Amino acid sequence: MSPRPDITMDAAEVRAFLATRPRAVLALLDDGAPVGTIADITVVGDELAVGVSDAAARGLLARDDRVCVVADQFPTYYEIRGVVAHGRARDLETTGDRTTFRLSLDDVTSFDFAKLPREGAGSGRAR
Amino acid sequence: MSDPVLDPDAHAFLRSTTRTVLLGTRADGSPTGWPMTGMATDDGLEFSTYRKSQKVRAFERSGAAGVVVHPDDDRALVLVGEVEVRLDQHVPSSGGAQARPETTATGVADGAQQRMAEGRRIVLAFTPTSARFVAGLGRDGTP
C-alpha cells in the first residue's frame, strides 16, 4: 500500500488561499452543539479578521468564544482546496449590527488536491 | 401534526446543490467542520466518508451536528440537527453517483464507488431539527 500523499498547505499557502476567499463558513457553539453561519474574512498578518452580521450567530459568539472557520473552493477536482481554522475569537468588537473578531491561524488543517498524484487517465477537468 | 423542519423552499434549495460544510465537535468540545458533498434525502442529508475517518470518531462521541448548505449564491441554508453513523450502510440512498458531479475527475469517481462496494466507506445520515436561511457566499465567493 502506497503512503498517503501530503496534500496540506504550508502557512504561506494557507494565508494566500484565505486571501482569495472573502466569505467562509463560521462554526460556533450553542450549549455545546455546533451551529454554522456565513462570515466575512480578511487575512491580516498571521491572523484572520472575521465579521459577522447574523444576529443569532452574534448572540452565540457572545456566550462562547470557541469558533472554527471553514473556507473551500472546488472549481475542478484537482483545484479543490480548503482551510479549516480553529481557535478562540479574540478582540471582539460590536458596532451596530456587526461583530468583528480576530482568529489566529496556529490551529489549522488544510488540503490542496493539486498536490494529489493524478489518478486514472482523466485530466481532472469538470465533468 | 407538527410543522416540517424543511419547508418546500428549503427542500428545493437542498436538492439544488451538493456543496455543504458538515459541522461537529472535536474531543475537547470545540467546533470543527468538514467541506462535504451532501446528498439530499426526503428527511435531510447523507454524507459518504471513510469508516476510519476523524469525522466518524467525532460523531460516535456526539451526534450533535450542523450543516451549512452553501452554493455560490446569495443565500445559504443553516441546519442544526443530529448525525447518525450508519456503519452498515456503505452506499448513500441515492447510490452516491452524484458525489460532486461537477468536479469529479475521471477515475476518482470509479475509485469511490469501488471503496463503497468494499465497505471501506460508510454513511453519515443527518436529520435537521431546525433550518433557516442566512446571507450566502455570493457568486464564486464574492459578496
Can you tell me about this structure?
The complex is a heterodimer of chains A (127) and B (143). Chain A is mainly β and 127 residues long. Chain A has one domain: Electron Transport, Fmn-binding Protein, Chain A (Pnp Oxidase, Chain A), CATH 2.30.110. Chain A contains 2 helices and 8 strands; from the N terminus they run αβββαβββββ. Chain A has an 8-stranded antiparallel β-sheet. In chain A, strand 4 and strand 5 form a beta hairpin. With 143 residues, chain B is α+β, with helices and mostly antiparallel strands. Chain B has one domain: Roll (Pnp Oxidase, Chain A). In chain B, 18% of the residues lie in helices and 38% in strands. Chain B is globular and about 40 Å long. The termini of chain B are far apart. Chains A and B meet through strand 1, strand 2, strand 4 and strand 5 of A and strand 1, strand 2, strand 5, strand 6 and helix 3 of B.
Radius of gyration of chain A: 16 Å
Alpha plus pi helix count of chain B: 3
Please provide the ordered H/E string of secondary-structure elements of chain A.
HEEEHEEEEE
For the biggest β-sheet of chain B, the strand order reads: 2-1-5-6-7-4-3
Overall number of strands of chain A:
8
General form of chain B: globular
Q: Considering the protein shown, what is the CATH homologous superfamily of chain A?
A: Electron Transport, Fmn-binding Protein, Chain A
CATH architecture of chain B: Roll
State the name of the first-level CATH class of chain A.
Mainly Beta
Q: In CATH, what is the homologous superfamily of chain B?
A: Electron Transport, Fmn-binding Protein, Chain A
Instruction: Characterize the overall form of chain A.
Output: elongated
Cα end-to-end separation of chain B: 40 Å
Compact overview of the structure:
The complex is a heterodimer of chains A (127) and B (143). Chain A is mostly beta strands.
Question: What are the main properties of this structure?
Answer:
heterodimer; A: 127 residues; mainly beta; Pnp Oxidase, Chain A; eight-stranded antiparallel sheet; 2 helices; elongated; disordered C terminus; B: 143 residues; alpha+beta; seven-stranded antiparallel sheet; 3 helices; globular
